[in-house]
Amino acid sequence: MKLKNKKWSLDKFMQIREEVLKQWDTGAEVDLEDAIEYHKSLPEQKDMSKKLIEAKEEKITLTQPRAGVALIDEHVELLKFLKEEGQADLLPTTIDSYTRQNKYQEAEEGIKQSKTEERSMLNGFPAVNHGIKGCRKVIESLDAPVQVRHGTPDARLLAEITLAGGFTSYEGGGISYNIPYAKDVSIEKTIYDWQYVDRLIGYYEEKGISINREPFGPLTGTLVPPSISHSVAIIEGLLAAEQGVKNITLGYGQCGNLTQDVAAIQTLEELAEEYLSEYDDIVLTTVFHQWMGGFPQDESQAFGVISWGGATAALAQATKVIVKTPHEALGVPTKEANAQGLKTTKQVVNMLKDQHFMPNGVLEKEKEMIKKETKEILNRVFELGKGDLAKGTVRAFEAGVLDIPFAPSKYNAGNLLPARDNNGAVRYLNHGNLPFSEEVINFNKEKLEERGKDEERDPSFQMVIDDIYAIGKGMLVGKPRT
Ligand code: 8ZB
């Protein structure tokens, strides 16, 4: 395996870059020196890294939606509305599915059709096709930092164009944008391709431009135990830091139990600080994702789910919260529905900003177990790589030491079975090949037995199924009698 966790030389980066920029004709427009100058000319309020550092210092939780449409003017109008009407603190640009699969010809067709039909025929903004000029028009029209949000296994050209276009934050990673999104792309390839993205951002950083990087925390979004998503987030944070990235936001998707979710955000930051301490000048922040699983169709019920996510994010003191909309069960939301989700969240976050979740025995125990589980996983990953995290990650997926529930990728073992305990916290019903100690195994087992007793059934796969469908029925835990 030639993959290794070592900062790429500028020569190696520049050599591969030549090929990357040829993947679509807008690649030829990218000039790094011009891009650096452009970023230097942007006002401070468009700088994601700065905004996040301020929020972390002030201990406030910023709101951010998801949004993207096919055409530039309509996209600007949408984002302006979310900022003004929805009071969004940070803005996104969600990229369309063709671009995520590097199908730029199809994206071009989508742009043409959107113009004739006078409505968006793509489920996001095709940034590669719009090129640097198109991206800069978006950035210049808005008065907030804008992040690229996507789901792209090979996101190299997209990064070149959007960063040169003035975006100041880039989501994704070699694991988090592969295993939940692709069926047959190897983890070795995506880690390599994301080293390129991180090296590009490392280059900007060397020139004084700090681009924020955010691994995609929630993974498959349903019943992902915190120690799984923490392991992936910390690995991607470390791989990014090695390539010179400095401003890192690690994410976690709401599981639904308040204590577990607060413990998860706190341990994510504490663990990451520990693991990343070998790198200088890293700034770490956190992002809490409102409920990423199935949503109730009913809009009032959806607002309940959204509010609970907002409340948890605020009590956990996450640096930002990614907001859902009352249209979640239906597909891409209207701008009005998107603003409603934002305003609901802002209301709750504001009401809770002076309240903290007080440490208590239960929170401390939860934190202790998340840390233990995560460290047991990461220790084995390092061992498998003989100290090299990139190699270790590839081997860990082969061995099922890293395993993400409900993922489509054939490079994922898929042996894990998570289920909720009696309080709704996500536990390991079956830990597959995860390298857990007796203590961790027994802790999870006892928690699930407690639920089994209450429900007069043995913990089994039926619980997993019931839990997946519970929220659609208005519940968190899939209890048979409710
Ligand atoms: C992994 C992210 C899934 C979430 C939302 C989905 C879901 C996707 C768009 C969007 C607004 C878009 N999402 N594309 N929301 N505009 N173009 O991302 O609804 O919540």
For the record, give the distance between the C-alpha atoms at the N and C termini, rounded to a whole number.
Answer: 52 Å
Gross CATH architecture of the largest domain: Alpha-Beta Barrel
CATH homolog superfamily of the largest domain? Methylmalonyl-CoA mutase
Write down the secondary-structure element order.
HHHEHEHHHEHEHEHEHEHEHHHEEHH
Arithmetic mean of pLDDT:
97
How much helix is in the residues?
40-55%
CATH topology of the largest domain, by name, is TIM Barrel
Shape: globular
Rg, Å, rounded: 21 Å
Low-confidence stretches: none
Report what the structure shows.
Its cofactor is adenosylcob(III)alamin. With 482 residues, this protein is an alpha/beta fold. It folds into two domains: 343 residues, TIM Barrel, CATH 3.20.20.240; 68 residues, Glutamate mutase, C-terminal domain, CATH 3.90.970.10. The chain has 17 helices and ten strands. It is globular. The site of ligand 8ZB has 10 residues, from loops. Ligand 8ZB binds next to loops.
